[in-house]
């Protein structure tokens, strides 16, 4: 495998804020940690976060033990959950991609344990679907991973909104209903395999170019407020540029034990007028090793729309660099299979010059995100 550079992400210890829930603006820890978070999110757009040790935390041993239990089930037990509900259950190899490449991974999605049913057309809020052979001990570890991650994400945003001082109102609006956010946020486990496990069946003579025709996760930015990632293995890479070009250098994140890797998301970048970066990233697979990761996408409440004072797309309000950066976010890109590119898709997506624009006045965040998830499903493998 090609050698890649590594990136040294700042490490931020959030533990003290998770044990102290007082919402007091004089709280020095909140201010200090908020500043560290702001510095990390406005420079690289990512950091590693230690969320504590003790009972109410998530350990790598618990999490990856549950992941092993899940992925080692029979294919038929996993497949039985594949089409049970939108964004719940198993995702088979090659069934999802954010680009033209085949993503050589299997995955599993779940959400909040307290979701009981579909809620007023809100497809993101649904009860969990686990294979019947999956142990209840492992189910509770995964469901606790979801609620703990939501608490960590809320705490990061609370500290960030203090650090942003005058710019905190947009974040505060997104944080006003943490239970609604938790209900539509998404947890996933992924297992990435050597590319050789997905050979080229249809065009046998064509060479498969590693990291181009086959990849772990195509280059993208995440759509939501924050993404939390756990893994024991490197593979996640952050780009040196906001769009892929000849000068792009991919740098590997080396995960630290019992830490989350935290990425700023597109929506957070938008509501902070580009102050927070949503870093361009991808996952490359090893030739010889399997990599497992836990990924948690933290979203604002379903009905959130962009706040009224939103300045995006008025380039006079932003530096040229920030404007270009916001314009290249995956949230605004058409990530559908090539066969659909340039064609309108129902009511949620507006297509202009092949790119998808988010009609900010008409569409709620939740509705739009449903259409984004539909756009990355792949069926023809
Ligand atoms: O597995 C990882 O490390 C990250 C995956 C990722 O970027 C995503 O699913 O959005
Ligand atoms: Fe991502």
TrEMBL record:
Keywords: Iron, Metal-binding, Oxidoreductase
Bilayer-crossing regions: none
The keyword Nucleus is annotated on this UniProt entry: no
Source organism, top-level taxon: Eukaryota
Entry GO MF terms: metal ion binding; oxidoreductase activity
Signal peptide: none
Ranges of residues in domain Fe2OG dioxygenase: 184-300
Similarity remark: Belongs to the iron/ascorbate-dependent oxidoreductase family.
Protein name as it appears in the record: Fe2OG dioxygenase domain-containing protein
Organism: Physocladia obscura
Organism phylogeny: Eukaryota, Fungi, Fungi incertae sedis, Chytridiomycota, Chytridiomycota incertae sedis
């Amino acid at each position: 495998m090609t050698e890649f550079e590594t990136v040294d992400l700042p490490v931020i210890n959030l533990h003290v804020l998770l044990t102290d829930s007082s919402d007091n603006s004089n709280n020095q820890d909140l201010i200090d940690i908020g500043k560290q978070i702001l510095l990390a999110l406005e420079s690289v757009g990512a950091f590693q976060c230690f969320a504590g040790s003790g009972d109410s935390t998530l350990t790598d041993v618990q999490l990856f033990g549950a992941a092993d239990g899940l992925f080692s089930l029979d294919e038929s037990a996993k497949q039985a959950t594949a089409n049970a509900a939108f964004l719940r259950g198993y995702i088979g190899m090659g069934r999802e991609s954010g680009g033209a490449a085949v993503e050589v991974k299997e995955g599993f999605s779940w959400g909040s344990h307290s979701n009981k049913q579909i809620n007023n057309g809100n497809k993101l809020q649904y009860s969990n679907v686990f294979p019947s052979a999956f142990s209840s001990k492992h189910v509770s570890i995964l469901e606790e991973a979801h609620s703990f991650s939501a608490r960590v994400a809320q705490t990061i945003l609370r500290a960030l909104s203090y650090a942003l001082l005058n710019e905190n109102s947009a974040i505060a609006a997104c944080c006003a209903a943490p239970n609604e956010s938790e209900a539509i946020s998404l947890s996933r486990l992924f297992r990435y395999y050597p590319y050789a496990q997905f050979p080229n069946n249809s065009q046998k003579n064509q060479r498969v170019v590693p990291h181009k025709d086959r990849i772990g996760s195509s280059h993208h930015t995440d759509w939501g407020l924050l993404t939390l990632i756990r893994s024991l293995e490197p593979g996640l890479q952050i780009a040196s540029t906001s769009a892929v070009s000849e000068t792009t250098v991919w740098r590997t994140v080396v995960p630290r034990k019992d830490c989350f890797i935290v990425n700023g998301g597109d929506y957070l970048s938008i509501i902070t007028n580009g102050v927070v970066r949503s870093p361009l990233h991808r996952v490359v697979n090893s030739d010889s090793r399997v990599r497992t990761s836990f990924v948690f996408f933290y979203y604002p409440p379903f009905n959130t729309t962009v706040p009224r004072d939103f300045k995006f797309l008025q380039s006079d309000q932003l530096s040229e660099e920030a404007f270009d950066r916001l314009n290249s976010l995956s949230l605004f890109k058409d990530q559908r299979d090539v066969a659909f590119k340039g064609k309108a898709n129902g009511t949620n997506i507006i297509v202009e010059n092949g790119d998808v624009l988010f009609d900010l006045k008409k569409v709620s965040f939740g509705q739009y995100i449903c259409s984004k998830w539909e756009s990355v499903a792949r069926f023809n493998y």
